[in-house]
Each structure stands twice: as structure tokens, then as C-alpha cells.
């Protein structure tokens, strides 16, 4: 028999509540409405000293959140980005990342824990039931909602517990500053970090393959060799950031074949030192054509004439490769005579 054929007198709604639940179970309706258990007061409801302790606990958690937010900002400003620490069992990790993650986690946890403890110990815990109603609420229901809201605000004791209210507002107002501080990473601060590299007068040219200082005799005519500045080791924390600016390529050309006068003056016995970083989007240049003295970037085929000041002869690169002036020290090793003559890599908005 379908539900449509069931006699009206057999419908559960007539034997119990308006929702179909019955007060007493029988054969046809084995599930009775258990109702709500009797309300049991909490210790905070009957002992004001216990309520004060809960109030202080909530305030302490909100205050801890504020301190953690301040610690987040201080860590972001004070800890160097390349500093690392050993944390067991995580191993060697970035000090800034560890500090930011810890302080941000504590700030969020303390706000959440404070709100939960507040709700469970001080807010009203009387169980309320309400009948289901149509989605479109009539005016009297909306008025009832507002009245319930006012009643809830009153029962939350936020007006009377000023210590909780003030510390909660402080925690919620201070925490968003974490996101504001992170806006700093949207772009570099107006400094000159992109204009300088580790190259300086007297820095030896170290072969990237052998990790040894280089002599002019180590570079054959027509060969392409890659070098790094003295003192830059691959196991250092900031190695990738520094080599991305200081990577050097050396090519030896017969001096008579060098067309650019400045390039010839900055070379040593036909050994030219140019930045290895393409001026298009910063890819490493690694292809060299011996007969034409052209260097090719494998990413977007920008081509540079190393015999003519590394000027661009093809591709999307915007300007020539910066050249490093080199010489030989008293021991016969190749050394830099300064930094690059201009910023390396792609153009940037601060570049004048």
C-alpha cells in the first residue's frame, strides 16, 4: 500500500507531535521522541569565582593571540630571509618560515580556543527547540530573530564581562595586521639589491666545474667556460639567490676579432667575461657558436654577439649582456676588477 492510500487515522502525525514523532513507542511507531534531557547548571552558573576564572582564561588566550601577532610581525621584519636553524626532528629549516608559521598558528589557535572556552563556560547553555517554518519569514518571525539576537547578546555577558570584550576586540583587530605585513612580499623594497652582485675588485674567478681558481691558460680560444665569484659555495643557504646574479661565462676570442673597443679594454688576452643571465627573462645562457662568436639562450632563442659587446642580434632580449672587467693578479689567476657595469638579467621598473 502506498503512502497516498494510507488512511488518515493511521498517520503518525496524529499520534504524536506535529512532526510525526510519538511520545510512546508502539508496534507501528517503534521510535519515540526522547525529548531533551534535564538541564544541569555548570559550575560557572552557580559560582562567580569560577566564572571569573573562566573570564581570565579567555582573556589570557586573546592576549596570547595579540602577542603572537606582534611576534609574527617582528619575525618578518627582524629575521634575515637566509638564516636557517636546526629543529629536531625537522632538520635544517629557514628560521623566518619556522617563526612565521609558529606565531601565526598560535595567534589563530588562541582566538579559536578563547572563543570556544567562552561559549562553553560563560555563555548561556540552555537548549532551545523551534518548529520548522517556511523559508520566507513573516514580519513577526524576523522580529523574533532580532529579539533572540538581543537576548543572545545579553546572555553572552559581553556587556558585563568587559575584560573578555576588550581583549577579544584587541585580538581580532590586531590579527589582520599579519596579512598587511605580508603585502611587503608583493615586490622588492626600493633598494639597490638588483644592481649589485658578489663580484668586486680582487675577487678570483672560480671554475664552476672544478671549483678551482682559473688562469688565462685554462681557457682555450673558442671555448666557453662558466665561473662564479670566490667565496660562494653551493652548500650555503643563499647560494641560488647569489648565483642567479653572479653567474659568469668566459669566452676566449682572438683580440683582432673583438669589434667593440670597450669589450677589448675590459678583457684579458682576448678572454671576455659576460653575465650568463639572459636579459629577456633570466634564463641561463649555455650555447655558444665558435665560428660566429654568438651565444644563444635556449629558452626563447635570444642571440648575443660576444665579439661585439654581447649586443642582441636576434630574439626578444631587450639589451646586451653586462660585461665584467677582468685582469690577472700577482699569482697569475684571473680576478675581477669590479662589479658588472650595469644590472644583470631582465629589465625592472627601478632600472634607470
UniProtKB/TrEMBL annotation:
Magnesium recorded as keyword: no
InterPro entries assigned: QcrA_N, Rieske_2Fe-2S, Rieske_2Fe-2S_sf, Rieske_Fe-S_prot
Membrane topology recorded in Swiss-Prot or TrEMBL: Multi-pass membrane protein
Domain Rieske: 245-335
Region (Disordered): 1-42
Range of residues in the leader sequence: none
Transmembrane segments: 58-81, 93-116, 163-183
Superkingdom of this protein's organism: Bacteria
Localization terms from the record: Cell membrane
Keywords for this protein: 2Fe-2S, Cell membrane, Disulfide bond, Electron transport, Iron, Iron-sulfur, Membrane, Metal-binding, Oxidoreductase, Respiratory chain, Transmembrane, Transmembrane helix, Transport
Family: Belongs to the Rieske iron-sulfur protein family.
Function: Iron-sulfur subunit of the cytochrome bc1 complex, an essential component of the respiratory electron transport chain required for ATP synthesis. The bc1 complex catalyzes the oxidation of menaquinol and the reduction of cytochrome c in the respiratory chain. The bc1 complex operates through a Q-cycle mechanism that couples electron transfer to generation of the proton gradient that drives ATP synthesis.
Protein name according to UniProt: Cytochrome bc1 complex Rieske iron-sulfur subunit
Species in which this protein is naturally found: Streptomyces cathayae
Amino acid at each position: 500500500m502506498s503512502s497516498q492510500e494510507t488512511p488518515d487515522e493511521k498517520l503518525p502525525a496524529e499520534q504524536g507531535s506535529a512532526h510525526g514523532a510519538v511520545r510512546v513507542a508502539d508496534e507501528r511507531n517503534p521510535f519515540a521522541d526522547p525529548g531533551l534531557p534535564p538541564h544541569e547548571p555548570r559550575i560557572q552558573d552557580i559560582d562567580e569565582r569560577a566564572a571569573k576564572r573562566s573570564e581570565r582564561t579567555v582573556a589570557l588566550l586573546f592576549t596570547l593571540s595579540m602577542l603572537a601577532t606582534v611576534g609574527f610581525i617582528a619575525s618578518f621584519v627582524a629575521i634575515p630571509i637566509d638564516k636557517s636553524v636546526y629543529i629536531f626532528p625537522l632538520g635544517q629549516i629557514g628560521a623566518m618560515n619556522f617563526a612565521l608559521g609558529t606565531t601565526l598558528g598560535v595567534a589563530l589557535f588562541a582566538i579559536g580556543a578563547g572563543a570556544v572556552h567562552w561559549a562553553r563556560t560563560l555563555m548561556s547553555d540552555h537548549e532551545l527547540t523551534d518548529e520548522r517554518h517556511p523559508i520566507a519569514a513573516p514580519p513577526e518571525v524576523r522580529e523574533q530573530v532580532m529579539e533572540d539576537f538581543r537576548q543572545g547578546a545579553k546572555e553572552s555577558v559581553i556587556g558585563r564581562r568587559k575584560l573578555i570584550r576588550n581583549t577579544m576586540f584587541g585580538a581580532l583587530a590586531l590579527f589582520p595586521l599579519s596579512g598587511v605585513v605580508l603585502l611587503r612580499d608583493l615586490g622588492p623594497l626600493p633598494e639597490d639589491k638588483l644592481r649589485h652582485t658578489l663580484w668586486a675588485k680582487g675577487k678570483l674567478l672560480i671554475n664552476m666545474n672544478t671549483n678551482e681558481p682559473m688562469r688565462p691558460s685554462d681557457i682555450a680560444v673558442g671555448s666557453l667556460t662558466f665561473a662564479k665569484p670566490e667565496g660562494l659555495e653551493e652548500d650555503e643557504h643563499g647560494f641560488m639567490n647569489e648565483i642567479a646574479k653572479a653567474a659568469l661565462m668566459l669566452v676566449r676570442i682572438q683580440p683582432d676579432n673583438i669589434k667593440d673597443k670597450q669589450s677589448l679594454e675590459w678583457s684579458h688576452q682576448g678572454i671576455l667575461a659576460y653575465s650568463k643571465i639572459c636579459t629577456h627573462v633570466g634564463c641561463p645562457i649555455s650555447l655558444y657558436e665558435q665560428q660566429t662568436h654568438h651565444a644563444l639562450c635556449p629558452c626563447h632563442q635570444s642571440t648575443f654577439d660576444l665579439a661585439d659587446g654581447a649586443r642582441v642580434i636576434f630574439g626578444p632580449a631587450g639589451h646586451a649582456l653586462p660585461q665584467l672587467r677582468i685582469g690577472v693578479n700577482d699569482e697569475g689567476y684571473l680576478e675581477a676588477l669590479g662589479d658588472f657595469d650595469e644590472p644583470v638579467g631582465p629589465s625592472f621598473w627601478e632600472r634607470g
